[in-house]
User: Fold this.
Amino acid sequence: MQPLSGILTISCPDRKGIVASVTSFLAQHGANILEANQHSDLADKAFFMRVQFELDGMDLDRDTIGPAFAEVAGSFEMQWQLHFSDRPKRMAILVSRLDHCLYDLLLRQKAGELVAEIPLIISNHPDMEPVAHNFGIPYYHLPVGKTNRAEQEAKIAALVEEHQIDVIILARYMQVLTPFLVQKYPNRIINIHHSFLPAFVGGRPYHQAYERGVKMIGATSHYVTEELDQGPIIAQDVTQVSHRDSVEDLIRKGRDLERLVLARAVRAHLEDRVLTYGRRTIVLE
Amino acid sequence: MQPLSGILTISCPDRKGIVASVTSFLAQHGANILEANQHSDLADKAFFMRVQFELDGMDLDRDTIGPAFAEVAGSFEMQWQLHFSDRPKRMAILVSRLDHCLYDLLLRQKAGELVAEIPLIISNHPDMEPVAHNFGIPYYHLPVGKTNRAEQEAKIAALVEEHQIDVIILARYMQVLTPFLVQKYPNRIINIHHSFLPAFVGGRPYHQAYERGVKMIGATSHYVTEELDQGPIIAQDVTQVSHRDSVEDLIRKGRDLERLVLARAVRAHLEDRVLTYGRRTIVLE
Amino acid sequence: MQPLSGILTISCPDRKGIVASVTSFLAQHGANILEANQHSDLADKAFFMRVQFELDGMDLDRDTIGPAFAEVAGSFEMQWQLHFSDRPKRMAILVSRLDHCLYDLLLRQKAGELVAEIPLIISNHPDMEPVAHNFGIPYYHLPVGKTNRAEQEAKIAALVEEHQIDVIILARYMQVLTPFLVQKYPNRIINIHHSFLPAFVGGRPYHQAYERGVKMIGATSHYVTEELDQGPIIAQDVTQVSHRDSVEDLIRKGRDLERLVLARAVRAHLEDRVLTYGRRTIVLE
Amino acid sequence: MQPLSGILTISCPDRKGIVASVTSFLAQHGANILEANQHSDLADKAFFMRVQFELDGMDLDRDTIGPAFAEVAGSFEMQWQLHFSDRPKRMAILVSRLDHCLYDLLLRQKAGELVAEIPLIISNHPDMEPVAHNFGIPYYHLPVGKTNRAEQEAKIAALVEEHQIDVIILARYMQVLTPFLVQKYPNRIINIHHSFLPAFVGGRPYHQAYERGVKMIGATSHYVTEELDQGPIIAQDVTQVSHRDSVEDLIRKGRDLERLVLARAVRAHLEDRVLTYGRRTIVLE
Assistant:
């Protein structure tokens, strides 16, 4: 059993004394630091930090840490968030007809690798309903056609609100979201794209890769922004291919990449390790 | 000491009996096959083969193998080439001001990893002259300005002819070749591009990679065609990067990639393992 | 729908004319070769080949190919096998309490990545029964204690015979098999060991890796022989770790390796791509 | 031009307030932190830190920082070291007859990738003298026979003292050092072993790897201790091999691994990123 811990994530302009102020605040209140990571972007004079600390032994409780920290935060113009380890994030999975990423997330969550609650699975197809059923998770079938996209996205948004969802995972959800949903959840929608972005943006990336004759294929997990496949990248990986691989082989090999890369990105997000900065991410691990 | 061997490379439409015909031809003439690789592109009904065989024990010699094989070749509409292991390819290296790929090629050739003769090094800058001198290789300084490009490329072509060059390596040669040179040596000019193509085509790919916030950088070695960075890819590789890496770090990490990927491509070419097919390569290893 | 094909695997002493004889035999009988791979071990003068060919168009059928080929085989002292693509191998999975390799094999089989029938799952624990149930596969619970090992292995052997099993997969089956079973199925039992063999033979390899302070962990899939963890290696892979990784982190990261490496080995075996040669394997892909 | 910076490395028992104390000390004296990394080993309650800070703007100079910090250090029982960026480490390279690691280190130093002075190269063979000469580095030929080992190691030690060497690199130096030298320079002698340790300890690891039929080969860089190939590992990497690779191929492929892994370890050491902890290293990057 992990002890109850707090996780503080911070972004601010870089200047002297930030680490000292944050860690002194924690030390003064009796906190034991479990893990601390920080990054200074020397080019842009920006500072990023994630610090995880035990609550046991502190003279503050979960309701008073934030207000007490606000004073430190204010003096450094920090954007900050405070999370607690006993409040796992609530994750909605959106999927179409391919089951490999869905299974992968569900099995990793079951194994404790992904610490999250999964209150619902949403799909534009009925195919994955039996999988959801096996894992005891409610399944919402919201088919998307030419005329009902806005309507169905409104339903998705309503479900997300109702279930107090923290993060939406597009686990090979083959619909482009409209700005309505994307703007509603900045840095809270994670997609897996089946290419090494920025190569092969858009549709059918394995076919594009085959045509171009590349010797490696990749997968990219990123936050969704309004511009297709242009959001901040959280994780990427590649694998070797050769002239012997048909498009079907690329698709097969790519499935393993997609699963691993998406899982890595989701895990980092769930652990509050991902800070975004313009088009880039800082992954503090 | 390796025994004298012949290397036959073949491209033709796929149909029944090709492997049998080629290997029976060799068997009938007493050849011992050292290595044979073939590939059938089932989608396009195309066939590719590389077979390496000992000459010792054959009832044909190096001058009569080709004519004898022509009959087999004709019946299958083969494009084919015959090389001999005691005639290493002659390689010209073009370089600008960065020494890492140049040193790498020279050291690998010296170590016997790259079996080739290097009769000359050509550069648009004087900087690498001492390196060439250390390795005892003539160095031609052909500076390229706004007005003399055609003239200098004509000199390059003259040197290539004079020295009976088989393959030209652009080892970080920072000039775009004109169609004149490119058309003259199809599939005989190998470039190293410092990105995972087709991502980050063109100039300053490490800067582009930094701006996009990718989590891996790559290098690509390809034959040069008239369309910039679009030629058939021979080899690619990538390495992990993170938010901690500045552009300078990407450049440093990329140097190792560039060396390894270029060396892999050059080695495959020198061993007659690379067949091109439209925009793609078949690398028979 | 793949066309019906035959797969011929061959091992024999290396000499002139083998490839010609095999491919001429196929050509004479009208076979179209889909894929052919061969390897000559020059040091040991040994020859290995795998050739896959379409039956459609041949003047032999599946019952007469073997007898007809026997003559070619005899003249080269070949050990050979002939398989047909419409007779997938029958695979028994043995598992203990960890579900990740089991799920992985079942999902890949369901997705068509592993072409095999799975008539039964055997375990020394009851835990995986619901998984087997979800996939509609009979589950045999054969607990192993200090006194009943021989008896339970006899039951396993009986089930293997009864269900005409071709290959046994130890998907994190945490029992050392006795020579009785191992000798019965040479090169037909595949294990996944959670280290980069030959490092960390035996129990608790992740703990051993942690203690030694290695910077990468690995997984190895191999055929089971009488000597523990010493059988011919089919596939291996590694992943990076660091001082930040606890033993639990190594176990978590290792799960992905185990799944990928086991799946790769099983796939190669199911496609008749693995030939063994002393302690080594030839994987013809 | 990098600004002058100090690098403080710290090991101590883990307890509350360490990071706060260290960073507050720096903040109070006006230091700007460029990079800070720390690690808490939760199992062993041990703490490790590396912090790099600019001297410009501090109210202490290079002579007074250490004494001022001693007070902080004392209260936490720290083992600590303070280095300055304008005092690059002095590195001796020991080499036998293989040139690839030697060239690699020299070229990286020349390119600024390895910030170090190289006052001398020592070898038990004369072969590398021309390389040393090309790079303008004094070369000491100290041949080692059956009877003069102690004598030659005494000469090595004398040279190391005379040239105020900080770190000794065994760049494929094919002599086992005696305890005399090893004990003299704990955590200051770096070796490259051409296997993925702990696999294939001792001599001829590529031959061992070939015999065992592994599917990947590796290289390991470690500090030298009295027990052969058992010192704390700094860096490791691997590459794929197959049945097609002869021992000579493994040796060739291994050369690239050896160079990359040794360079990574040396760079980490030169930047004071490696702390040792029993048999393990903490590499703070």
